[in-house]
Amino acid sequence: MSRIQFTGIALSLMLAVFHVGAQPANPGPPPHDFSTVDIKVEDLGHRTYMLEGQGGNITVAVADEGIMMVDSEFAPLHDKLKAAIATATDKPVRYLIDTHFHLDHTGGNAAFAAEGATVVAQENVRKRLGSGTEGMNGNHMPPVPQSALPTKVYRDELTLKLKGRTAELRHFPAAHTDGDTYVYFADANVLATGDLVSIGRYPYIDVVNGGNLNGMIAAANALLERVNDKTRIVPGHGPLAGKSDLLAYRDMLQSARTRVEKLIREGSSEDDVLAAKPFADFDAKLGANDQASQNFIRAVYRSLKSGASTRSSSSP
């Protein structure tokens, strides 16, 4: 399959990702013209950078013999991402780590792999990319080409090394999806969370593909134990964060669980909970529109009704 064909697939699938996922604080139509997207590069120190464009945030860690890169946004942004990386280093991407399977984080897999990068992910990411998925709102994502699949997979934890740098990968089950990875660069004290954490917006909990609110809370608790007051946190979406932001995010998730659990105990149906607007104060704080609020309510309700319990938090 040519790069042009793959780009066309990514463009057609992009809408599904935006409709399934939580909406931005100031929602608008997803861009059709990627030429309007600017890639912002933030220097985190110790040869580590955060890239923000359209889709999930990216972390770039420069080693002596190449780059370890976390996530890759949408396929059509490949050239812009390469240009942004080139402002920091001329070294090639050796490892591309997928934090989960959603295309706003994995769209660049094939293009970077064609340039020599090894794509790394938790084993469930390869399964879902290879088989295709259905979203909570009925959105369909067909299988990606073989060239876009991770070629190095792990189950629970993995350490990647390039000369001068180490990346610690850990898996959280049943959180944002069933294949989530966080990546920690100890020498820079930088934590890349993928969509386990979103700042300034509701997180998307992909309950159809193994996600669960209790798992999100367990992950947030474990991440809080991992960070300190100087840790820079690159969330899946939103601005660079710190421990206090992660704490506020965890507290919001716990409060959301408590409120909806109470309504469920009182016999409320999903429609009843939607009508009750239990997160009106969160909506106002986040600037969330009705769609974003309803998506989050549905995910919380379905997580708690599913009977899947991952409340107990264990640090990896």
Structure description:
By secondary structure, the protein is α/β, with parallel strands linked by helices. The protein has a single domain (3-306), classed as 4-Layer Sandwich (Metallo-beta-lactamase, Chain A). Helices cover 36% and strands 23% of the residues. The chain is built from 10 helices and 14 strands. The strands form 3 sheets. A 7-stranded mixed β-sheet has the order 1-2-3-4-5-6-9. Strand 2 and strand 3 (58-63) form a beta hairpin. The longest helix is centred in the C-terminal third of the chain and has 23 residues, at 243-265. The protein is globular.
CATH topology: Metallo-beta-lactamase, Chain A
The radius of gyration is: 18 Å
Helix percent band: 25-40%
The total domain count is 1
Secondary structure: elements and pairs:
Blueprint: H1 3-20, E1 40-45, E2 48-52, E3 58-63, E4 66-70, H2 78-86, E5 93-97, H3 103-106, H4 109-114, E6 118-122, H5 123-131, E7 133-134, E8 140-141, E9 152-154, E10 157-162, E11 165-172, E12 180-185, E13 190-198, H6 213-226, E14 232-237, H7 243-265, H8 270-276, H9 280-286, H10 290-306
Parallel strand pairs: 4-5, 5-6, 6-9, 13-14
Antiparallel strand pairs: 1-2, 2-3, 3-4, 7-8, 10-11, 11-12, 12-13
